[in-house]
Each structure stands twice: as structure tokens, then as C-alpha cells.
Design a protein that fits this description.
The protein has 1 helix and 25 strands. With 313 residues, the chain is mainly beta. The chain has one domain: Jelly Rolls, CATH 2.60.120. The strands form 5 sheets. Strands 1, 13, 14, 15, 16, 18, 21 and 23 form an 8-stranded antiparallel β-sheet that branches.
């Protein structure tokens, strides 16, 4: 569920910035993959669009079946320059990190981990839960001001929600319809989980934000465009509101934020500004440098081949 980013998602060539478009509905298919034994549908990054606001990664995980001891097996791995946002719709996941955190995540609870200069974590079976696992993980690119700061972790079990027309919106991060999540944000952004009943709902938006929509279950209509699970809809900037329709019960994720004007380069589990930063971080991980600390996990540390620009042909 937590990466990694491959060349098929965002070719690790030169730093790239995704330029915002005017209000639109651009629907693209997510890339199907498997992470830690769990099927995922990756909506971000994509070729041609690496970011929506500061959001630079979106994996829709499951739904799939897991057991007490297996089904989600993502061993310790490193991150730099990002926040991880983990949000479950069903099931339980155990988070461990190099800060000494051991946190059980349940539906409706937010895990937010800040990587800064460097952190490592694992995502594991809980040892007690058996059943359906369904959720989403996102990454938020940190700005220059904070991306070399200290790592941190926070867990929020109580998030604000608001009823609007035929929907109930939970504010995961940022401010939505006057309701503020307590989760950390380093740049202006928003994330909302919407439970939709049959009919239409109109949601307020901020015209300076660009937005994206992920259908988590059921299909939703954004004007004339239908968005189904496995698809990502980019909405551009300049909208005051968004009308969402559903014929049957559905659920969606809305993400957005001010366009991120710092070009980023992404490879494996790193968000950086240059190849040299990634080279240094990856060598530190391979050398078990104290930069990434140690995760108290029974799973093996993850690793991978060198970045493509360092491989010999």
C-alpha cells in the first residue's frame, strides 16, 4: 500500500511539475499492481500528471481478504520528503515506524506520518483481524520549507463530518465546508471521504485549488462523466462547487490543494528535487544509516535495485 513508485508511474528523468488545467473532468484508468500481496489501483502519479495540489501518490487498496497473519506484508522501507496518509474503509492494519510508533488503524481513523529528512515504517497484518481489507494511501509532497525537517507521526480517531444533500462528508485533512481536520498540513490542501446516497449532492470547492476524485465503491457522475472504481478524475482549477450524482449508494475520495509549484522527482519511496538526493537517500538506506532509524518489525527490510540512471547496461 505504501509505494513503491515505478518508472511506469512517473519516469524518473528530470524533475517535473504538473501544470494545473482550467475546470474540466479528465478521467483516466488507474494502473493495476500489487503491493505487499494486496491488489491496488494507482491513480497518481501518472505520465503527464504527477501531482494534484501537493498530492503526488494515490493507491486504492482492495477490497481483498486478509488473515490474522498475512495478506498485507509491507516490510520496513524508507521515505523522504513526504507525508503518508492512510485511510481505511474496512479492516485493520498495524503501522510500525522508526520513531517507535506502533499504531493499529481502523476505518474512519487517520494515520499521518511525516518523513521529512528520513523515516522508515512497515504496514502489517494485525495478528487478530481476519476479513475484508479496503482502503487508500496517499502521499503529500512536502515543500522546501519543511521537507528536510524532523520526521513525525500522528493518529486521529475523531474527524469532523458534515451532511450535504444526499451525502455525508468526512474531512480527512484541511478545511471543507467550514469544518477543519486537526491533521497536519504543510501547504493548503484538502481530502474528503464522501458517502453518497442515491441522488445529487453539491459540494463547495475553492477556486484556487485543483482537485481530483477517486471512486472508492460504486459509480459517481460528475456532470456527464461517470467515474468508476479503478479510475481517477482530474477536475482542474477554478471551480466554486462540484455536483456529484449517484444512482446507487457510492463512496468517493476528493483530494485537492493549491497547485504545487516546486518540481519534484519521485523514485521508489522517495520524493526529492534531484537524482543526487535520491542517490544519497537510497545509499543511506542500503547502508542501514541512522538517518532512517530502525523499525521493530518481524518483516524483512525492503530493498530494490539501484535507480535506473545508476545501472550499467
Amino acid at each position: 500500500m505504501s509505494g513503491p513508485v515505478a518508472a511506469a508511474d512517473a519516469p524518473p528523468t528530470e524533475p517535473d511539475a504538473s501544470h494545473p488545467s482550467a475546470a474540466c473532468v479528465e478521467v483516466t484508468d488507474s494502473r493495476i499492481a500489487e503491493v505487499g500481496g494486496v491488489p491496488i489501483r494507482r491513480g497518481l502519479p501518472q505520465r503527464g500528471r504527477r501531482t494534484v495540489g501537493p498530492w503526488c501518490f494515490e493507491d486504492h487498496m482492495g477490497p481483498t481478504q486478509v488473515t490474522e497473519t498475512g495478506g498485507l506484508d509491507i516490510g520496513p522501507h524508507p521515505h523522504i520528503g513526504l507525508h503518508t496518509v492512510t485511510w481505511l474503509l474496512a479492516g485493520e492494519v498495524l503501522h510500525r515506524d522508526s520513531l517507535g510508533t506502533e499504531q493499529l488503524i481502523r476505518p474512519g481513523q487517520l494515520n499521518l506520518m511525516t518523513a521529512g529528512y528520513g523515516v522508515a515504517h512497515s504496514e502489517e497484518a494485525t495478528g487478530t483481524y481476519r476479513g475484508e481489507l479496503h482502503g487508500v494511501q496517499l502521499w503529500v509532497a512536502q515543500p522546501e520549507l519543511t521537507r528536510n525537517g524532523d520526521p513525525a507521526f500522528e493518529h486521529h480517531a475523531d474527524l469532523p463530518s458534515v451532511e450535504m444533500d444526499n451525502s455525508v462528508a468526512t474531512v480527512i485533512a484541511g478545511v471543507f465546508s467550514g469544518h477543519l481536520s486537526r491533521a497536519r498540513t504543510d501547504t493548503p490542501l484538502v481530502a474528503v471521504d464522501g458517502v453518497l446516497h442515491p441522488g445529487a449532492s453539491t459540494w463547495p470547492l475553492r477556486p484556487e485549488f485543483e482537485y481530483g476524485v477517486v471512486a472508492l465503491s460504486g459509480s459517481v457522475s460528475l456532470g456527464e462523466q461517470v467515474v468508476a472504481p479503478g479510475q481517477f478524475a482530474y477536475l482542474g482549477v477554478g471551480r466554486q462547487e462540484l455536483t456529484i450524482s449517484a444512482t446507487d449508494a457510492a463512496r468517493l475520495l476528493l483530494i485537492g490543494g493549491e497547485p504545487f509549484d516546486e518540481p519534484i522527482i519521485m523514485w521508489w519511496n522517495y520524493v526529492a528535487r534531484s537524482r543526487e538526493e535520491i542517490d544519497t537517500a537510497h545509499q543511506d538506506w542500503l547502508d542501514e544509516h541512522q538517518r532512517f532509524g530502525r523499525v521493530d518489525s518481524p518483516l524483512l527490510r525492503m530493498t530494490t535495485a539501484d535507480p535506473p540512471w545508476r545501472r550499467r547496461t
